[in-house]
## 1
Amino acid sequence: MLPDRCDVVIVGAGNAAMCAALAAREQGATVIVLERAPEDESGGNTRFTAGAIRFAYDGLEDLRALMPDLTEEEIARTDFGRYTEDQFFDDMARVTENRTDPDLVELLVRRSKSTLMWLRSHGFRFVPIYGRQAFKVDGRFKFWGGLTVEAWGGGPGLVEAHRKAAAKDGIPIFYGARALGLLHDDDGINGVTVRHEGKTRTLACRSVVLASGGFESNPEWRTRYLGPGWDLAKVRGTRFNTGDGLRMALDAGAAPCGNWSGCHAVGWDRNAPEFGDLAVGDGFQKHSYPWGIMLNANGERFVDEGADFRNYTYAKYGAVILRQPGQFAWQIFDRKVTHLLRDEYRIRQVTKVTANTLEELAGKLDDVNAGKAIETIRSYNAAIRTEIPFDPNVKDGRGTVGLPVPKSNWANTIDTPPFEAYAVSCGITFTFGGLRITTDAQVLDTDGQPMRGLYAAGELVGGLFYFNYPGGTGLMSGSVFGRIAGTSAGQAAKRA
Ligand SMILES: Cc1cc2nc3c(=O)[nH]c(=O)nc-3n(C[C@H](O)[C@H](O)[C@H](O)COP(=O)(O)OP(=O)(O)OC[C@H]3O[C@@H](n4cnc5c(N)ncnc54)[C@H](O)[C@@H]3O)c2cc1C
């Protein structure tokens, strides 16, 4: 039974929301979590992730502190390297073209390690991402791209760890409880309206933390803010992030902030369903394009597949695919690289063709100009600087010369059968536009004044991401700002 009042209401039950709930409870506040989804679909986009989390670490000792289960054997066979705060800052600045908010990024980076240690203190476990972020060279694994750990059990494991931590701390989660609006007067926010079990009612509180995701699952808002064509994107994750929290806050006078016309979107199986499928998780993504090429319906390449490590390009290439005729592309590989393809290429629900000649392959690429496809592959093969050795662990500089669309790294000839091709479309992950917050995660109104009792975290915070995004930062941002929002909301509620 949903109570009439509590100190802090948390809207959402993804990673940001649940971090906020734990932190508010630590302040001694009574906390209620409202989750729009039914229990079997709960956990938002967080549940669809692989659980990869980007954080700054100075070397092995930091990793040992976070993952005391690391064995001596794992340590001996792995070069974990370091990912310093400076590198994290540089990555955020570079991929956002220097637009990321300096105050927010400061918190994100400097609190990344301590926030993971805080989660660990609540019983969360982390493991190295051997499968996806490290290749074996001369018998040793080497991590690359600043992304080294994932939550134990991936996204589903992370959501389960949150559920357990909340239960341990006496935080109730109400499923099928959709927040509809914020109650407020001249003294600030004092409650929410919520629809639960077919009834609309009010829930009084002293603080609200909005952590209900972006508007990626709302085709009308996507078209309105991201632009024409975005109604045609597939949604990678939950169907419940339709912008409710953003609308509620804007209606109450909150200031919009950040890249409202931007989003995170990737190459995603062309025949994937409209929304994410929890049984497949992130398996519809196809992220090994740096080892091959991508062709559009005209049989032409249209993007530098090897511009950077996939961590730094995958989130913006979905939009590039959406702009192609028919909103699709084929990724092409030959036998020399197929052993490098990520595990998502080996799932049952995949749109794949194989062939023993390039002519046969081109004929099997649905909706593609086959003659032009063969021509493109031949001229690509001829343009590669084959004198530079191929090395997937570093940006190897093995590029092309003289092509209208260059490939900067990892260019390998496509000449060794069997050939494999995978059809992808655009899959949207989450939207970048959000609310303006202070460094205490308090929401600001359109006059620039803090809105008493209103806090925000996760996808619906604006100002961090523009144009692009370094892989693994969504969970880190949700954790850092969820914790800050919950702490602030809990403290404010206790003061009131
Ligand atoms: C397939 C996929 C793979 C990904 N992989 C990674 C990865 O490996 N690493 C990484 O860092 N990021 C990854 N991401 C991005 C990551 O999922 C998000 O950045 C992060 O989970 C956002 O957390 P959040 O808590 O803000 O939102 P969510 O986890 O989406 O939670 C939002 C919650 O709000 C609820 N909600 C919505 N409206 C209402 C309402 N009106 N009332 C009540 N509740 C409401 C939803 O049901 C949901 O529980 C991935 C995303 C997808 C889709």
## 2
Amino acid sequence: MQKRLIYVVFVAGALLGVGYYLYRTLRPSLARSARVVEWIRNPQAHPEWAVRAGTHCGADAPFVIPTDGFIGYLWDDSFRLGHRHQGIDIFGGTEVGLTPVVAAYPGYLTRLPSWKSSVIVRLPEDPLQPGRQIWLYYTHMADPAGNSFISPDFPPGMYEKYVEAGTRLGYQGDYSGDPYNPVGVHLHFSIVLDDGLGNFRNELEIRNTLDPSPYLGLTLNARQSDGQVVVCEK
Ligand SMILES: [Zn+2]
């Protein structure tokens, strides 16, 4: 009898723990999803939600905002169990191919031969941690069929082309790799670590990326967010 009671208490505790874990990890991202849907449906209703390309949001922030729009998802958001978002998503609130994407910081741009929607920019010196090299990854710059919105200055196979901060890289798109299942029109931006040999690490793993908060002067870490819309201080 007592054994059974212990078992019941154990199972109930485990279920509560799992439930609490799901609630804590998924709820903030679900709340942000609701705002993303609202923004995409009617961006004119919330002009105060938008950030502007080319702005510095903090006195100590080395990067400028890389595009216009609403910062819908943060670094370390969870869209599903076990998933951790490696960057931030800025939703332009326009159709594909209209909202410009600019370089957040100077560096050397590479676009691999197979890349339809992405570029990556090498920063020889991390401005916040001198002595290490980092990479800035910009993606979703194509339509659902993979027609690229990347500037013709950066064709596939372009290596190490110097760009200034504010250089137009392309336009936001909704390319996901699956033409029947495009994402909402946005830019995904992330900071990727170097492997120590001069190559960028796999940008799909969060452990290979950095919290972009101090670089952009905004609270962009999902675990530190207060749940409010992330905008520049006026
Ligand atoms: Zn993203």
